[in-house]
Amino acid sequence: MSTSASLRSGAAAQQAFRDVMAAVASPVAVVTALDGTRPYGTTVSAFVSLSLTPPMVLVSLDERSRLLAVVRRSGRFGVNVLGAHHADLASAFARSGPDKFDGIDWSPSGGLPRLPDNAAWIAAEVDDCVDAGDHTVLLARVTAAELGEGFLRPLTYHRRSFGAHTPLAQ
Ligand SMILES: Cc1cc2nc3c(=O)[nH]c(=O)nc-3n(C[C@H](O)[C@H](O)[C@H](O)COP(=O)(O)O)c2cc1C
User: Fold this and answer.
1) Every domain of the chain and the residues it spans
2) CB distance 29 to ligand 1 below 6 Å
3) How far is ligand 1, taken at its centre, from the CA of residue 50, in Å?
4) Alpha-carbon distances of 7 from 1, 14, 79, rounded to whole Å
5) Which class for 126: exposed (0-12), middle (13-18), buried (19 or more C-beta within 10 A)?
6) Contact 77 CB / ligand 1 (< 6 Å)
7) Cα(39)–Cα(87) distance, integer angstroms
8) How far is CA 135 from CA 37, 65, 147, in A?
């Protein structure tokens, strides 16, 4: 007999939630910001289109994220949507530490750190920050949106592994 999550202990309910969310395929992006001249970046899958008029995106960051502190100060961020060839970048930017950009060939784009060969690039200005549980949701207006070379084969995350989206045969 199955037990509903609400009847489980906190730890069991949390594990059930993690397992369910691991089964949801998600996009993978590196969200970036500049602190003065210093680039910061974090791997994010909680990234979604929010509004068309005006164009807005939503990004959710852990309250302990170093990047979040930088975005709160600068009020803007870039979203580097990753292609399937960028699983190594996704792992590198999921580490914690101040040196994630060492050896990375990034360039400033409108004052935001842009990674090479991404699947797509979005620049955004924060309209609102909403604290929700242990995360902060950034609601942001899109100021630039460009497809990159890797957009036909985006990187995905599913069941705790990186992969690539494959269209079904017609
Ligand atoms: C596939 C994947 C998706 C992730 N998605 C998010 C996310 O949406 N929000 C978040 O805060 N952290 C996410 N993380 C975890 C962060 O990348 C990780 O905690 C990182 O070390 C935070 O770095 P920072 O403190 O420099 O911001 C994700 C990690 C992986 C591997």
Assistant:
1) 28-154
2) no
3) 20
4) 13, 12, 39
5) middle
6) no
7) 20
8) 26, 9, 28
Q: Which CATH superfamily is domain 28-154 in?
A: Electron Transport, Fmn-binding Protein; Chain A (2.30.110.10)
**Tell me, what DSSP letter sits at residue 154?**
B
The tokens of 85 are what? 């060839």
Where would I find the beta strands (DSSP E) of the chain?
26-27, 29-35, 38-44, 47-51, 56-62, 76-81, 107-109, 112-114, 120-132, 135-147, 155-158, 161-164
Tell me, using a 6 A CB cutoff, whether residue 60 lines ligand 1.
Answer: yes
- Average of per-residue pLDDT across 76-89: 97
Q: How far is the CA of 170 from the centre of ligand 1 (A)?
A: 35
pLDDT in tens, 9-64: 799 999 999 999 999 999 999 999 999 999 999 999 999 999 999 999 999 999 99
